[in-house]
Amino acid sequence: MESREQYPHDGDVTDNFELAGVPDAFQRLWTPHRLAYIKGGQDQVSSKDNCPFCTAPSHTDEEALIVHRGRHAFVILNLFPYNAGHLLVCPYRHVPDYTDVDAEETAEIAALTQTAMRVLRKVSAPAGFNLGMNQGTAGGAGIAAHLHQHIVPRWSGDGNFLPIIAHTKAITQTLGEVRQMVADAWPASADETSSGGPSAAAGTDEA
Ligand SMILES: [Zn+2]
Predict the structure, then answer these.
(1) What is the pLDDT of residues 71-117, one digit of tens each?
(2) 43, 82, 121, 134: least surrounded by Cβ within 10 Å?
(3) 171 C-alpha to ligand 1 centroid (Å)
């Protein structure tokens, strides 16, 4: 199976993906990776087959920008980060709403969020975080069909004049570099039940 089937818009990196509540003027300088999550925003997610959070785990960590795979949920870099190290925790199941996840998924999403904060503190010493889930398109969800928890590291001054005045955001590391740094710092025996989830190892769609 070609990866193009998994990522039907591969090679056609969108510039109109919408982030929560923010007209995304930042990403014009930001097309470092050939795997676009999706073209044209969440309208394109009509099923599991074209859902980026469902297809990502079938790729290698490096291709999909996954930093950790748990049993019920995984951690992935946001392709269009507010800040370097902007992570998403997603259940493997294609469910849209926080009330759809069961007790085990809920517990693991929470544990992965805590571990992600600890890892980000270790590698990049943020001064704060924004955590949250946008529910539904009216709630600002870019991909409303598949639940995802945002973990955004914050530094004093990261909302400075540059993005406000110039609509330009300087991110000095590539997503691949950030992924490697976070993955390397992820504890081997994290407090969530780990290493039981889907792996790309058995996949046949390696590029
Ligand atoms: Zn999905």
Answers:
(1) 999 999 998 888 889 999 999 999 999 999 999 999 999 999 999 99
(2) 43
(3) 28
CA of 67 to the centre of ligand 1 (A): 18
| Spatial separation of the C-alpha atoms in residues 17 and 45, rounded to whole Å | 12
Tell me whether residue 148 is one of the annotated catalytic residues: yes
Which member of 72, 148, 150, 167 is catalytic?
A: 148
Q: Pull the structure tokens for residue 136.
A: 């539904």
- Cβ atoms 35, 7 nearer than 8 A: yes
Q: For the segment 182-193, what is each residue's pLDDT rounded down to a tens digit? A: 999 999 875 554
pTM of the complete model beyond 0.85:
no
Q: CA of 112: how far to CAs of 85, 153, 156, 192, in Å?
A: 15, 15, 25, 7
- Other beta carbons less than 10 A from residue 29's beta carbon: 12
Expressed in angstroms and rounded, the spacing between residue 105 Cα and the centre of ligand 1 is 15
Instruction: Assess contact for 155 and 172: CB atoms under 8 A.
Output: no
Interatomic CA distance for residues 174 and 172, integer angstroms: 7
Binning pLDDT at 50, 70 and 90, where does residue 32 land?
very low
- For residue 95, report the distance from its CA to the centre of ligand 1, in Å: 7
Lowest-confidence pick of 12-21, 34-43, 186-195 = 12-21
